[in-house]
Design brief:
Length: about 120
């Protein structure tokens, strides 16, 4: 089994910064993509950013230029640096990874709350 543990969420004022971390552990063979989604109250979960095992990144238009995703393959960890935060960034942020064995499976973290006050 693969487990994901997130950290770094919290309360911040608009314009501030937070850095989320997500560490994977367990029986890990090969990790493909890693990334972050978020879900605000009353809204559907949406993609925030992804990063491939080669380091290629993809961002939602709403966070481009403000958020940066990175990963440390030696630690099986993905990060999300969030700058210039806005109240509309308030959501529960979930990390995920795509695990490759003989099959392909997606694993999710438990979520971490990010609240941006105006």
């Amino acid at each position: 089994q693969v487990q994901l543990v997130e950290s770094g969420g919290g309360l911040v004022q608009a314009g501030g910064s937070l850095r989320l971390s997500c560490a994977a552990s367990g029986r890990i063979f090969s990790i493909n993509n890693m990334g972050w989604h978020r879900q605000a109250p009353g809204k559907q979960r949406e993609l925030v950013a992804t990063i491939s095992n080669a380091g290629s990144t993809n961002y939602a238009d709403s966070v481009k230029g403000r958020f940066t995703i990175s990963r440390d393959n030696s630690k099986n960890t993905v990060y999300l640096q969030m700058n210039s935060l806005k109240p509309e960034d308030t959501a529960v942020y979930y990390c995920y990874l795509v695990h490759l064995t003989s099959t392909r499976s997606t694993h999710w973290g438990q979520g971490t709350q990010v609240t941006v006050s105006s």
